[in-house]
Write a structure and sequence with these properties.
The protein starts with a strand and ends with a strand. The radius of gyration is 25 Å and the shape is elongated. By secondary structure, it is mainly beta. 2% of the residues lie in helices and 29% in strands. It has a domain of 101 residues: Ribonuclease Inhibitor (Leucine-rich repeat, LRR (right-handed beta-alpha superhelix), Alpha-Beta Horseshoe), CATH 3.80.10. The strands form 4 sheets. The protein has a 16-stranded parallel sheet with strand order 1-3-5-8-10-11-13-15-17-19-21-23-25-27-29-31, with no helix packed on it.
Length: 400
């Protein structure tokens, strides 16, 4: 019988890739990912000219590997290579492929340049070049050449310069992650990605104020991560019609001023993190209207890369200069799982409305100027807490 598909993913297979696997004439799908395979990856699957899908990532291959060995595999559509071994390197050969890939994943491959064969690819739906040693400016030509590109991941490289996107719409993009690079300067205005759901620009060197219209063309955006950059100015000071946004991460920047009323229009938030900034003013009492009362599980967003969404609903406003009362309305966030208001200048008493936070697992009000008594109803909930911290305040005994 002529083997057409072989899937050995997620086992404990070790040793080298058996040479016999390279001789199946009619093999279309070969998946060996997430095993303990080692040694040299066969440089050419000589007789597998029917191969359409090859996935050998997450193994322990070593040595150099030449992509030019696939030059004559005209049916290849999916190619995924990576290794846990730091000595594995994919070489960037100059060759002209006979195939048009739908998806390419070359992660942890010690690439020092974007493979030149990508200049001749025009049908890509997904490209992932994360965790390499890539340098240079943002490869906007990938978007220009592949107008149907849906996923772009360039995580943990050394790209630098400003983010210059082509002056065209990119409505096919749904996932866009260029985090952990050295991009700098201001964000471009009018990012036009009508179908995008996840945008991660975190851990770069972006700076300046957020343009009020920089997301005007992102109608479906659900998760925005701008954390660990050098942004400044006020947070969403003007109206933005972004009702789709569920997760906003702006922590570890230089934002200042009050929390802008533009945030009031994000009516479907599950998580908001603006910690470690210079935000001042009072916690707005309308903030409860921006949050859903339900909570979200990890599996709802398992298509997103990384661990950024692997926790329940939460709000983190810690390490800012917020002052005044804690709004009573926060007690209406009955689905919230984590609330952190620590290291601010909040004063007066803990609202008794907090006793309605039946689902909360982590509550941190430490390092403020709170006074009065701790509501008895609140302490009755502490058996379910993983964190309950009201230290470094002026609180007295529990209210009886």
């Amino acid at each position: 019988m002529d083997l057409v598909e072989l899937n050995l993913k997620d086992n404990n297979l070790g040793g080298q890739v058996p040479q016999c696997l390279t001789n199946f004439t009619y093999l279309k799908v070969l998946v060996l990912s997430s095993n303990q395979l080692s040694g040299i990856l066969p440089s050419a699957f000589t007789h597998t000219k029917s191969l359409e899908y090859l996935d050998v990532q997450e193994n322990n291959f070593e040595g150099k590997y030449s992509l030019s060995s696939w030059a004559n595999h005209s049916k290849l559509q999916i190619l995924a290579l990576s290794s846990r071994n730091n000595s594995f390197q994919v070489e960037n050969d100059n060759w002209f492929p006979t195939f048009q890939l739908k998806a390419l994943r070359l992660t942890h491959c010690n690439l020092n340049a974007i493979p030149s064969f990508l200049l001749y690819q025009y049908d890509l739906l997904s490209v992932d070049l994360s965790h390499n040693k890539l340098v240079g400016t943002f490869p906007s030509w990938l978007l220009v050449n592949n107008t149907n590109l849906r996923e772009m991941f360039l995580v943990n490289n050394s790209f630098s310069g400003t983010l210059k996107l082509p002056n065209t719409k990119h409505d096919s993009i749904t996932l866009f992650d260029i985090s952990h690079n050295n991009f700098n300067g201001p964000l471009p205005k009018n990012i036009s990605m009508g179908e995008i759901t996840m945008m991660d620009l975190s851990n770069n060197h972006f700076s300046g104020e957020l343009p009020c219209d920089f997301l005007i063309g992102c109608f479906s955006l659900e998760m925005l991560n701008l954390s660990n950059n050098n942004f400044n100015g006020q947070i969403f000071p003007q109206y933005m019609n972004m009702a789709s946004l569920m997760f906003i991460y702006l922590n570890n920047n230089n934002f200042s001023g009050k929390i802008g009323k533009g945030l009031q229009n994000f009516t479907s938030l599950f998580a908001l993190d603006i910690s470690n900034n210079k935000v001042s003013g009072k916690v707005p009492n309308w903030i409860d209207h921006s949050f859903e009362v339900n909570f979200l599980t990890k599996n709802r967003y398992d298509s997103y890369k990384g661990d950024i969404l692997n926790f329940m609903t939460g709000m983190d406003l810690s390490n800012n200069d917020l002052f005044g009362d804690i709004p009573l309305e926060i007690g209406d966030l009955q689905g919230i799982k984590a609330l952190n208001l620590s290291n601010n200048l909040l004063a007066r008493s803990i609202p008794k409305s907090f006793s309605k936070l039946k689902n909360i697992e982590s509550l941190d009000l430490s390092h403020n100027k709170l006074s009065g008594q701790i509501p008895r109803q609140l302490t009755e909930l502490t058996l379910d807490y993983s964190v309950f911290n009201v230290s470094y305040n002026n609180l007295s005994r529990v209210d009886s």
